[in-house]
Design goal:
Radius of gyration: 16 Å
Strand order of the largest sheet: 2-3-1-4
Number of strands: 4
Distance between the termini: 17 Å
Amino acid sequence: MSLRTDRVRITGSFKRKEGVSKEEFDNFWLNEHPKLFTSLDIVKKNILKYEQAHANEVVSNAMAAHGLVIAPFDAMAIFEAATFEDLMEVFTSEEYRKTVGAESVKYFERGGQMFAANFATILDN
């Protein structure tokens, strides 16, 4: 088994901004953010895959009741590209900052956590 050499990923984990309802946040994250993000030329050029995860409070509470530690985030995204340079070109671009970045700070707390990774798919049914 080996790590993939044709793609890399950055994952980001984010918290909902205080004062933003779960409904407002979920609507932005699922419906508005993807439109903004995928409309950018730099994204069309560099991003191969974009996936979202939305926190499930019921399941998180059940897992916590069994002693598991739950990450304190409301959303996660996986961004995949051919190289880390392609990913960084997106997230450091003026185009991204002026559109997606500017809109996201209305819904997300500052200080989301990013994780850059080479990866191997172990199981994919």
